[in-house]
Amino acid sequence: MTSRSPLRSLQDMDETVLSYAELKAVATGNPFLREKMEIENRLGRIQLAKIDYETTRQKLQKFMAIDGPVRLKDKDAKIAGLMADKLRMDDAALKDSDGKNLFQMTLGEKIITDRDEAAKILMTAAKGGFTAATAVKGSYRGMNLRILIDPMAMEPYLSLSGARTYRIGFSEKPEVTMRRLDALHDGIIKELKATQEERSRIAEDVKEAEEKIKKPFPYAAEEAEKKARLIEIVQQMEQGSDVAIAARAAVPREAVSEEPARAAYAR
Fold first, then answer.
1. Sign of torsion, CA 75 76 79 84?
2. What is the pTM of this model?
């Protein structure tokens, strides 16, 4: 592969073509030849820009019509799930007379209000092997609670599920595991906020795509003008009109110096 960009290569080619055009124009005395090749060269660059414009436009259309709405739908579903789980945990929270949260966990048929006792039961089950761990079923603040085994790491973890499912890793220290469990509610709120922000950004991107698609090709007018002029030049060259050639010539042929040819040759 080469490190030269297509644009750089095109510019190099342009210089070569223009130099040849200068030599040919001087040799033939036809002032239309150079203009024709300059217009063709410019139209070539416009065509490259048009290809890029159409490619970008197709991507924007796909994002606006397919990718954007799909991503928005996914975010909406996630937001709805997170919001439902937040409300679920809020409704199930027990508070004392001072408004502080009270601990309560159900494991099997047993309701546990002592945090240390719950931690001990969970840790014992987690270290008791697959059968003991997966036999644990309960609830915590309205969320279904289970101990599952990671099939890849073969390590137990707490699974809490409502509208969505959340994973909490065990620590060697029971108190750390319980702090992670307590932090679930705040974690849901944090994830909810982040997802809402992501959703807003996607919606803005969709709106921006809609606006960009409305913009016409910026070189459309110039392209039409150049094409019209090229047709005119070709017709005049084919007709061989001496009047037209004299009208377009900047200076009489006799006044053309040899400097352009030498400069072109030097390049």
1. negative
2. 0.70
Q: What are phi and psi of 139, to 5 degrees?
A: -150, 155
State both tokens at 76: 């909406």
User: What does 44-98 look like in DSSP terms, one character per residue?
Assistant: HHHHHHHHHHHHHHHHHHHIIIIIHHHHHHHHHHHHHHHHHHHHHHHHH-EE-TT
Confidence of residue 95 (pLDDT cuts 50, 70, 90): confident
The residues facing 111 across adjacent strands are 106
C-alpha–C-alpha distance, residues 36 and 39, integer Å: 5
Q: What is the crossing angle of helices 115-126 and 174-182, to 10°?
A: 110
CB 145 within 8 A of CB 85: no
| Helix, strand and coil percent figures for the chain, each rounded to 5 | 65, 10, 20
What is the Cα–Cα distance from 175 to 118, expressed in whole angstroms?
10
Mean pLDDT calculated for residue range 253-263: 45
Q: How far is CA 59 from the centre of its chain?
A: 11
* Mean pLDDT over the full length of the chain: 84
Q: For residue 98, what are the CA distances in angstroms to 90, 93, 94, 104, 132?
A: 16, 14, 11, 17, 38
Token digits of residue 131: 């059968």
Which residues partner with 102 through β-bridges?
A: 94
What is the SS3 assignment for 139? strand
Phi and psi angles of residue 176, each rounded to the nearest 5 degrees, phi first: -70, -40
In angstroms, the CA 140 to CA 122 distance is: 12
Tokens 């072109």 map to which residue? 264
